[in-house]
Amino acid sequence: MPDVAATLAPGLRVTRHIEDALRDTDVIMLLRLQKERLAGQKIRVQDYVERYQMTAPRVELARRDAIVMHPGPIIRGLEITSEVADGPQSVIMEEVRNGVPTRMAILARALGKAK
After folding, report:
1. Which of 29, 51, 89, 92 could lock 69 by a disulfide, CB 3.0 to 4.6 Å apart?
2. Is the Cβ–Cβ distance between 32 and 72 less than 8 Å?
3. Integer Cα distance of 55 and 80 in angstroms
4. 52, 58, 62, 63: CA torsion to nearest 10
5. Is the distance from CB of 5 to CB of 14 less than 8 angstroms?
6. Strands in 39-114 per DSSP E
7. For 62, which DSSP code?
8. pTM
9. 31 and 71 Cβ atoms separated by less than 8 Å
């Protein structure tokens, strides 16, 4: 992400280190790893895991009551550890369960089919 992204909204901060981004956060929101977006990138799987995988020590940097979100499907052992995915702060199953109905409601509202 270019540094200019920090100018898009007041209070927006860009960091290059996941640990800095996690400190004192209320929500950890992960996205699905899309291998096609890594095409042409020279990053090894082990490097990705070391830099970005959500692990218990990383979650501990957030607030004690922070929640962990991910829209699914998750790739255990790559994006996130099982300990975090199944941990007490995870709301991943609820997010996945509510994903389709939420998108349906948003589309219905956008199309004028709902109030």
Report:
1. 29
2. yes
3. 6
4. 150
5. yes
6. 67-69
7. S
8. 0.81
9. yes
